[in-house]
Amino acid sequence: MTLAAAIALAGVSKHYETPAGLVRAVDGITLELQAGANLAITGSSGCGKSTLLGLIGGLELPTAGSVTIGDEQISSLPEQERARLRRDEIGFVFQADNLQPFLTALENVELQLALSGSLTGCGGARELLGELGLRRHADKLPDQLSGGQRQRVAIARALIHRPRLILADEPTGSLDEDNSRAIVDLLLAAQGAASGATLVLVTHDPAVAARLQRTARLRDGRLEHA
Q: pTM surpassing 0.85?
């Protein structure tokens, strides 16, 4: 199945039982995003931004409501099917780059191809790193790279399998202003280059959010506006 990355959330909630009582991390969100569009999810710390992104990407299941990507209601799929979609059709970028420390930059990107079952594309991985300004750094280990360079490797890893949906959770949160601007440039350029790709980016930075087409602001798990 190929994912058509239009997103539709219908009454989506995610609640957790804790010793202190019920936590409504996400509470009754309805939202639609056309395929090929981009959206910033904003709000204060703890408002449910990352939880919502995880629900969109099938990392978690909602307590109530439904999450549909293209024509597939992923919130009703078993974990094995959701894992396959995450592996083959979705590119994740997080604030922590989560690179494998004993693999080179190139090998970290190639690992995504291997997980996707691709027997070719290694030349493409080196080419993509070159496009992201890392041609001279492809054979370095993560601890030999700067924070901005590591995040570029993480973006290359997220894009190498040409996902239809790109989900980025605070990808600039630990970077300075110049690197933050460059990372957003890369994500928007990648979305434009991948025909039909959809981008959803979580950020606390108004300057980052302003660069995307739409903004959905959360407060206490609820949607203030979109």
A: yes
